[in-house]
Amino acid sequence: MVDLTNVLLRLKREGVVWSPEDLAALSPYLTRHIKRFGDYLVDLDTI
Fold first, then answer.
1. pTM recorded for the entire structure
2. Of the residues 22, 25, 46, 47, which has the maximum number of CB atoms within 10 A of its CB?
3. R_g of the chain, CA atoms, integer Å
4. Neighbours of 8 (CB within 10 A)
């Protein structure tokens, strides 16, 4: 959510105008390519 907010604020500073409908279509959550039973790798050695 933080990354999405930062991008939206940067675009606003650049003069991009969006509507509430545009923002309603955005989601910070994965909605595609989700593996039903997981198998997500997390590299704990990388910060």
1. 0.54
2. 22
3. 15
4. 15
Q: Which residue, 18, 22, 26, is CA-closest to 9?
A: 18
Would you say 42 and 20 are in contact if contact means Cβ atoms under 8 Å apart? no
Name the band, by pLDDT with cuts 50, 70 and 90, for residue 31: low
**Structure tokens, 10:** 């940067």
Residue 34 C-beta-side C-alpha neighbours within 13 Å: 5
pLDDT band at 16 (very low <50, low <70, confident <90, very high): very high
Pull the structure tokens for residue 40: 């997500």
CA distance 7 to 14: 11
- CA–chain centroid gap for 43, Å, is 20
